[in-house]
Amino acid sequence: MTVAIYVSTMRSDYRLAKALIASIEAHLRSPLIYVIPDDDYPGDEMFGHPVWRPSDPRVLELDRYYKKLRVFWGPAERFMHMDADQLVLRDLKPYLDTIAAAQGPFVMANRRSSTTKKLEAADESARKRAFEGMTGDVAALASFDPSFDWRAGHLLNSGEFSASKNAIDHDTFLEVFATGKQFYAEHGMGPMTGMRAGPFYTDQGFLSYFLAAHAPGTRVEWLDDLYAWGGRDELTRYRDDDSTDPLKWVAVHWAGCPRPGPIPLPGRALCAAQWRRDHRRYCRRHGDWSGYLQDSLQDAGSLAWQAGSRLKRRLTG
Question: Is the pTM of this model over 0.85?
Answer without folding.
Answer: yes
